[in-house]
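Suppose a colleague, Dr. K., hands you the sequence of a protein chain of 185 amino acids and asks what its three-dimensional shape might be. Before reaching for any lab equipment, you can write down a predicted structure in token form. Begin with the sequence itself:
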Amino acid sequence: MFSQEQIIVGCLKNNRQTQKVLYDMYASKFLGMCMRYAKDRQEAEDVLQDGFLKIFGRISQYSGIGSFEGWMKRIIVNTAITNYRQNLKHYYKQSIDDINESDIELNLAEYDYSLEELLKVIQNLPPGYRMVFNMYAIEGFQHKEIAEMMGVDVTTSKSQYSRAKKLLRTKLESLKKEKLIERQI
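The predicted structure, expressed as tokens, is then:
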């Protein structure tokens, strides 16, 4: 087993074995993260591959200060944002006017959803909502950071998050009703 320092040194030397070790250590975790940002698994896998290429290409920029995993996570998230921007013209756009502003808190614990159901609902959010929701609610970025990373205003980040929560609640309540109907049949 390689230590973190050995992996970093090996990757700095473009050693394929240590690159594979690093990839194997984090690929499944980062794929799960990419799945929340992407519209489907294929897109998530593409983002993951691009992200690891960037990690390997920029590993000399890791200063050793702070978490190495956190440094890689930021690269993966930035890769997902870049992918989103590049593919924005291909995504279905939902008018912001169609969704009312809301401060509804989303409490998923009160429902009984599988991981696959939750992931599908998140993946079906409009792309901008999905990005902000993931970055704020799941990754823990602040709205100021999200705004800087996505090139939007802080108020845009906050409103997209609020709208994402409302839309998620609506979709999850629909799913809950469908499940209740299925149980009655």
